[in-house]
User: Fold these one by one.
Assistant:
Number 1:
Amino acid sequence: MSELKLPSRSEDFAEWYNQLVLRAELADYAPVRGCMIVRPYGWALWENITAALDRRFKATGHVNAAFPLLIPKSFIEREKSHVAGFSPELAVVTIGGGEKLEEPLVIRPTSETIIGHAYAKWIQSYRDLPVLINQWNSVVRWELRTKLFLRTLEFFWQEGHTAHATAEEGEAETRQMLDIYADMAVRDAAIPVIPGRKSDAEKFAGADVTYSIEAMMDDGRALQAGTSHNLGQNFAKAFEIRYLDKNGQLQNCWTTSWGLSTRFVGAIIMVHGDDQGLILPPRLAPHQVVIVPIYKNDDEKIAVMDAARKIRAELVNAEIRVKVDEREGSSPGFKFNDWEMRGVPLRIELGPKDVAKGSVVLARRDKPGKEGKTFVPQAGIELAVDKLLDEIQRALFDRALAMREANTFEPKDYEEFKGAVERGFARAYWCGNAECEGKIKEQTKATMRCIPLEQAGGPGACIFCGQGAKERAIFARAY
Ligand SMILES: [Zn+2]
């Protein structure tokens, strides 16, 4: 494994990504084209993402539940733009128990319809609102071009679905969840994101407004890392989600939905990884620290392993996620490379000399070679490690932000714009016309990623047609 180097990112970013996912043992291909097997190491990373989100969801009053995988096909057809958007991607079950089904069932591509059906039964009065439910599950969309984590037929995610009494509450919920995604991305994943609004062409099928967080990958392309939809009354009308208000009047609810998926693992890989492999942000890393014992004979082994276990216990006590690499028959050099490939933020090297001196070597994954190495005493090691993990977390964010800034351009004209989207993000005025957006996409392969919530400067002229434009948008080629 350690004998084969990854292709460098500059040489072949796509192949670097594919090989890294396989060799870091994050995921594997499945027998059905486009499906994904998430391996334990990849799942441990996803679990830490889910924990970081679930904590935030619950702190804001949301609860979890589980809705069925199978949805009557007629449900999907009830909301017009929803069916138009999802029909081409549906997996449909027509036979069950050897019998042709009376009504075909779809495997959920998302659960607005079946949850809307349940909400219509559960919600009677204004006293029943708001309903704030999330579910952790997987969904199926029949994608044609697939890539592990980024676009797979089945993917894992959470989908939140809420119902409210007023339009203002629905919008506030939509924005709150966008903020939660942004906060998790920045603070836990060390990924800078741009929160913004989608264009009509890019919004969710059935939403009034879609918001997203957009991140720049190390090759300059964009990745939509999470979305939050204000569904207005579209699904409430289609599924009769209604309540009696304080005056006894029947009203339609206002609903939202929001999701973040295993794509986010792809974002972490492509934002932080280097030519040696993965680099994981300490807050999400399955192992924050790996201890590699170094010894040549049994006497040394006894002393080194004894010290390693003591250090491990200290770190576990301090709630640091640590692994001792006790594999027999692999050299320390092999183990170093292996954990570098898997992106463990901090490595502790421990040999007989270190044991004698009562010290260890700490090696940072984000700073290869001598630059990232420090010698620290074994006494109080948990404090040194904790401090260093914080530093690594911050350094990864700073580096990702600097990369994004260096590759974000404000083109003066369309010629400059075309050059900008070859390299990264173009921040440019857009008149709001879908025709300009469509032609830009056709001519440059760049899509309108979002209209950032934060806008600097007044109005300007559309980068494509020159007409008056109120806001700047982010354009980029995207995953
Ligand atoms: Zn225009």
Number 2:
Amino acid sequence: MRGIVYTGADAEVTDKLEVAEPGPTEVKIKIAAAGVCHSDLSVLDGTIPWKAPSVLGHEGAGIVEAVGSSVRSVKPGDHVVVATLASCGTCRACNTGHPTMCIRSLGNVSTPFTYDGEPASNFAAASVFAEYTIVQEVQAVRISKDVPFTSACLIGCGVLTGVGSVLNRARVQPGETAAVFGVGGVGLNVIQGLRLSAASRIVAVDTVASKEPLARQFGATHFVDATQADAVEEIKKIVPHRPQSMAGALGPGGVTWSFDCVGHPAVLRNAIDALDWGGTAVAIGVPPRGSEVSVDINNLAYVDRGLLGCRYGASRPHHDIPLMVELYLSGKLMLDELVTETRPLEGFRDIVEDMHAGKLARGVLIL
Ligand SMILES: NC(=O)c1ccc[n+]([C@@H]2O[C@H](COP(=O)([O-])OP(=O)(O)OC[C@H]3O[C@@H](n4cnc5c(N)ncnc54)[C@H](O)[C@@H]3O)[C@@H](O)[C@H]2O)c1
Ligand SMILES: [Zn+2]
Ligand SMILES: [Zn+2]
């Protein structure tokens, strides 16, 4: 079987993979398309430490090939999006609508593959850069056959993460203002989540100037090229302090919400500094382990600023994946527009190069 393996040093396109048959609670999926998320790249450069050998990819969609004896919710032939949460379904987090906080859903590694005859583990409980993968039943979410796989696959991470951070975690209200740092696959989905929430001013910030048209297409009302201007100052010019509030002290002016979709301490610091009184920054990007950010505590304590983390859009896959499909089919959520290029597995390196060069919304592998 073909797939992309993280060897510990690099990513290798190989045909030396085999996958197990599904156990009683598992589903075997024939992957049709898979998006390349920055988190896959973060495994390769060590930002996200992971076991090797392992099969990469965690943003995928495909067709159910076979199901285990106790699986009831999907059957062979169903089209599914793969959710990365192998959540247990029985703990307090799962039963209060927070499967992203299920302890079983984090760092849960199994070994359904062999690579050149040796055991190989999965990545993010998904491993969708392979012709076939094995997931838990709870992770195979059936979708309408009307959604092309190249668009559906993106729901599996970038869309749930970005749109979910706005709808589920921040719960942005109509008319509120926001800044989005990083206009990649995740940031564009934050931007369209803000558009869906009727945010008034949506300021996109990137270090690649050519991202501006894309940001505006998804709903940004302003764009700041962070290589040409101080992003915080620009944001405070676009959303100045409220006339009734005291200027000068405790950094008034700025947005109600900011989202770090890059994963760098300096970017998160800017996201905090760009907040108005009462504003909240949401940390989505994932820097190396141990990364820290410093803030002036008085700027938080006196005027109710806050900082939130957000994993996987605080999503509940069996609610949010059908919701994203419904919004797409009714013309309210852009998925096709996220697909900048499609390539076979052998084109993985080209996608990585184009991603680093800031050329992509998303690159998608076709299996
Ligand atoms: N919390 C989660 O659940 C979750 C889920 C998915 C991805 N992520 C993380 O989110 C981050 C973004 O992922 P992605 O797939 O959108 O990446 P991407 O490579 O598609 O996009 C990153 C964007 O950030 C821009 N950028 C880089 N440095 C910048 C800077 N200093 N200021 C402003 N913009 C800058 C790039 O030009 C690019 O447009 C990664 O760290 C990824 O690991 C987190
Ligand atoms: Zn991802
Ligand atoms: Zn659980």
Number 3:
Amino acid sequence: MDTVDFAVVGSSGGGGTIAWLLARAGHSVFLAEQGPDIAEHLDRQNLQYNAATHDENRFRLSKPTLHRRTRGDYNTILSSDPTVKNGPFGGAWTASVLGGGSIIWGTWSFRALPIDFRLATHFAETGQLDTLKNWGYSVTDWPVSYDEMEPFYNVAETLLAVSGDRAAVNASVAGSDWYKAFQTLNHVKDDGNYQPTFPFPCDHYPITPIGRFVADGFAAAGKLPAPLPSGMVSPGSASYSTRDAIEHALAAWGSEPKPGFWARSADQIWSDRLRDACNLCGFCGEYLCWGKRGPKSSSRVSTIRELQDIRHAEIRPNAKVFEVMYENGRATGIRYLDISNPDRPRVREQKAKYVIVSAGAVQSARLLLMSEPAKGLGNSTDQVGRYAQFHLFGFGATCTLPEKMQGFLHSELGHTGNTMTFADYFVQDDVSPAGSETAGKWWKAGTLVSTAKKNPLDNADSKLQTKGLVGRDLISDMERYNRGLEIRLTGDDLPMARNRVDLDPSFVDEYGLPVARITRDFGPNETLMFTLMQKRLRACFQHYLDTGLLTNLDDPNQVSIAKSAIVTLIGDHQMGTCRMGDNPAESVVDRFCRLHDVRNVFVVDSSVFPTGFGLNPMVTVMANALRVGTWIDQQSRSGDGLG
Ligand SMILES: Cc1cc2nc3c(=O)[nH]c(=O)nc-3n(C[C@H](O)[C@H](O)[C@H](O)COP(=O)(O)OP(=O)(O)OC[C@H]3O[C@@H](n4cnc5c(N)ncnc54)[C@H](O)[C@@H]3O)c2cc1C
Ligand code: SF4
């Protein structure tokens, strides 16, 4: 195609979703993805999972490489943390393959809560906003509300075939101490629906042994547990029809007339393709699913698979975009390196009327900054790259059960994560001295989730590779491993202007392009949260002490609680950098994710998040891409046009 309507950069939850919607609506689309299509080999080599052989060596260890980054790519890190070696590092990548992070994600599928879209309003009402400002944070409301997002959350959950128990998730929110305490606040009454009724499209994922143990621990500690909503066709389900699920989402849209795209019937929106149920093989963590017909959800098995059938859409893997072409105040297309043979890169161009950037928060900022050498595309007010957020990873607790429990915690069942709770989404400061500015106030923490271990052989292999463990040492490590369970906090990482992505002034990649430099430090809110969560994590294991499974919660061989998150453990969840907002002086894109500066360029990945929530981002990325795509389609057909 000579000039397409839309050139989309990146093929994951943001790019894959919007490319499909626009193409299905009739627009011509060119989708550029820097990585290869690694799922192709499943068909080519006929390597589909065989349920009769739980062949971990073949299916887990012999997997193709993860392709977190393409050959020769890297970022640099800049931090004042003394443990961090500043300079090039391997982090801050989701995945560089067709499907992006949606291929290797853990499938934890949360929609955000109404309060997440109004965090500045909330902290202003409680008198904490000034404290946060003085600490260096720039907490702001989203320009869109939960209610505007809700119908798109419903559709996103159908595309992701989320397996869950809505009543249990709602109960976990409503039963939390913070939620009860916030009922007197004005904004909570108007924020939106905290108790959605749209049923998850699949029944909840079965509770695994580890999930059961953790649920009991949560419940005994007064934290209401719920099965973790998971983006995969629940084991035991009949074949999953996305079309039927979309029909339910359309019916739930409400009494308002549906926006143009969604006025179609479900069979005009989706094919009759079916997906199979997950068979609990457990080989998908950080890798694509081996199951036939896509049990694990990704853009690759849903929207991109549909896109492949649309004639006026072209999907181009191995296309590394290095410039949004720009002339007289408008983008004219994209320039990319065809790296099908990385030793012989070829420069190519695709002209387009509109460009949609969805390369992940780090690479989207890098691409915009590279595209206009003077100061960066969309960066007239120096906002591109700022407010980078990554969630607080590495912070959680592990518990090792006694030897008699050997064999009870089958780590290889299912995927990662199984039980969750909203109990500590906000936590009250009950440790600071009375009268201090933080004491008695509720601070943002996040969701707690049980984290299943990776497969045993995979773990043994990595212990051999990374720690050199062999013989008795390896066996004893593996014995402990099979008795261990973990709880992870997905902690909110509040936005600060100084935490940012910019172009490294010294380092370039193998093609001579400047790499992304990530500046990151924790602030006082994170430090406070690490302190407040210590005893709350410990409380999750009190039940095991009471029932005689553990004898001493202070014995690090029984319970180990991290002291803080790890500043360099970033990439899986990357947010911020192209903030969405109404004020061009303080944001990069408007409420429809269009650059304030360049009206025919949009950004639709997690980089537009003004705040990052205390939960996983994928469902919101997709819901937002659906919302923006719907508006683009509607606007382009209206008298005003898209501009
Ligand atoms: C290991 C892991 C586990 C995760 N688990 C969960 C989870 O359980 N739940 C959840 O909600 N989220 C999870 N996430 C996060 C989730 O995957 C991301 O939030 C989601 O994928 C974001 O989608 P995105 O569209 O913003 O872009 P990304 O997934 O970051 O994809 C960006 C795409 O753009 C491509 N790209 C980048 N630069 C260029 C360029 N210059 N030219 C062309 N293409 C380019 C990349 O190759 C990639 O395919 C996880 C992520 C990882 C890595
Ligand atoms: S456990 Fe993961 S890889 Fe195995 S079938 Fe289920 S979703 Fe697919």
Number 4:
Amino acid sequence: MHVKIPRVPLVATLTAVVAAAALLVLPSPLRVPADAAIVRITATDRAPAAPETTTPTAPARTVAPAAPEATAPAAPAATVPGATPVGTRPPVVDHGPRTGNKVALTFDADMTDAMRYQLRSGAVRSYANLKIIDLLERERVPATFFLTGKWVEQYPDVTRRLAANPRFELANHTYGHLAFTPDCYGLPRIAEREMTADVARTFDVVAAYGGRQTRYFRFPGLCHDRKALAALAPLGVTVVDGDVVSGDPFAKSWRPVVRASLDGVRPGSVIVLHVTEANAPMTDEALPHILAGLAERGLVPAPLSEVLGVG
Ligand SMILES: [Zn+2]
């Protein structure tokens, strides 16, 4: 009697997991030195993306939720923006090609247990800045949202609103915004063995909302090292840092946020902002000035996949 062969994607995923695990236990000559610089590539180094489409409506859910008991994440469809070969260390991207006139506005939606406590205790009213979303919708500005799983669970209605907008792309910012490196702005640290499952779980949480799903991923605090990147190998993602850091967390005035967002912004730039309101209280006031400054420079906001794709 033959053993029934499991579905191929699961086999491929499991193979990738085993391969990734094998890399971690290889003898030292084959391993990347612990102090090796993190490999950064730009989109120009990568294979050209598929020609830009003008599909106005959001693609259907393209990332299949994994079975609850599965230990291996579902493999992403190759057509999802940001998808990379499963089993290989993900590329880390700062920006797109420096040609053309597109830039990406990216908004991180952090949510830690400490933040949830602040909400429940009434100390904080909101970590979802609806004024930002109102403005982007009113002005028809494309943007990309890096969502934590816990933020999505806290704000399902806002997430539905984001997913329903054909100009917005959804990306992954971990489940609970834990640090993936030993020293990352004082954030509590995730165990190395839990990293892969944490990020896979977040893709599943976000996938349930449909809309413009991607395989883009951003580490909390942009903190990553060799081990963190290796943990993502089974997931087929692109790690996105950003070349323009607005510094909007805990800003006291909108002016420095605007200055930081516009200084050094160039074609292909990826601007890092936050939609967390109480923890980034000036971002909605800064945004109109940022949009005006981009327009003055001839730069046009576009979804991340378009900014990282061919010019
Ligand atoms: Zn964050």
